[in-house]
Known about the structure:
Blueprint: H1 2-12, H2 14-34, H3 38-47, H4 51-62, H5 67-77, H6 80-91, H7 97-105, H8 109-122, H9 129-152, H10 168-185, H11 190-207, H12 213-231
Helix pairs in contact: 1-9, 2-4, 2-9, 2-10, 3-9, 4-5, 7-9, 8-10, 11-12
Amino acid sequence: MKGQDLRLGVRAAIPTMLGYLSIGIAFGIVASETGLSPLETLLTSVFIYSGSGQFVLCALLLAKAELSSIALTVFLTNLRHFLMNLHTATLFPKASLWQQLLIGSFMTDESYGVLLGAELKNGLTTVSPTWMYGNNFASYFVWCLSTVLGAVLGNLLPNPAALGIDFALIAMFVAIFTGQLTSLAKRLPLKKIGVLLAVVTVTYLASSMVITGSLAVLLATVTACTVGVMIDD
């Protein structure tokens, strides 16, 4: 049963893996231009494993920022993961602490989105910690592999933006979000969904004018969650 759950988790991660392949190559190219070797690029993927955080890292390295500034900025960029992990822990109440840590440590925005999509569509009957391992680690492996490939090919593709590679992550988010929205529309009134989307949009746009984008995402998420609880029947 666990082997089947693992395969189902890997299968669910296929869209994420395809997206990671292109955006990972794009990051590898950027890392190469920053001066990172393929090995150093691999190490950033292995230990940081954050697309947005790794792109920020390269930008700060080019700016010759201090190590403390780099660490703090990458931390704030990924602060939203605390919220995602708090919610994910409630979806696996019978999982041990080590299982929860393993799931949370390798979970990304995309694997979290895939998890939410599966939960909305099929409920928690088809989602287990082993399923989540397959979802997480398949994406992790492809990300590490593609970033190294991009670093090696850095001199051959000096301008990935011209090929549209940098749009892959956005397209992947749109695909995941569309699936979630379709599932939500079957369970919630469209009026409530519209209110939540409006809250997220307005909060993010307003707060991003005075705080960083990462903190704006965090604030918009917390605000939308609060409103969602208030209007829930």
